Amino acid sequence: MTTSSALPEQAGRTCHNVVNPFHSTHYFAPELAAEMAKAGVENRRAAYFACRAAAMGAVGPGTVTATFYNFKHELIAEHVPAVWTVTTPEAVLEARLRAVDATLRRLLGKETVESPEMAEAARLALRAVEGCSRQARPLYAAHADQPVPDAPHLAYWHAATLLREHRGDGHLLALLDAELDGLEALVSHTASGRGMSYQGVMATRGWSEEDWAAAQERLRTRGLLDAEGELTEEGVRLRKDLERRTDRLDRAPYEHLGAEGVARLTELATGFTTAAMNAGAFPAALFGK
């Protein structure tokens, strides 16, 4: 059941910003590396590509590049489709869920994982997901075909994954409309002070210093970046407009949940995400400028 109260401006974005990190905790966890190694995947980059892509099946590098957007295609092609010769998408999905379970239990503790609040968060997030749509959202649609886990903390993680990929697919549409390629999106986001750090991008996305410099120059030519690599006024406007467009494309799940439900999910998600961050879920070097 939804509520008729109006959804405050940016309430969906605010909720996403605290739900999304809950999904992401496992990417940096030793539990994921261990479980993927058992599945035959020991390379950390291959493990990441396999984990996020597995719901789509044994896809090739083109599909991964298209749906992940900001990774260099050549980096992806080093690991995909080779990863599917040592494991299967089904085995990866099972390994991922085991890793998520172990990671959340370590970061949050048994009491939090099995709390009534966790079960409430799962119910609210899954209700929001009812408002999502599959059309033109390949990563969301693939994950939406996966079963909802029984355990509340895993059900909440599953719902967080769906909300993350739903917004992410919409964001890619906004980036395409703004005529920003994958690296230009990263460069402008980093320049905004809200994205990954330069060091984080270079360590994970496969781009070279020359690639980064060329993207900066393309953004300067468009008047979006200044000589020091900072956003111009036009660049700031573009990044704000991107978020507004993404909000519009992602409004359905939060409107479906309603203002009271969104506020409560935001409250619960903030507590869980804060606890995970305080427990060291994310490398500090990945964020900020």
TrEMBL record:
Pfam families: HTH_67 (PF21863). InterPro entries: HTH_67 (IPR054058). This is SalK. It comes from Streptomyces angustmyceticus.
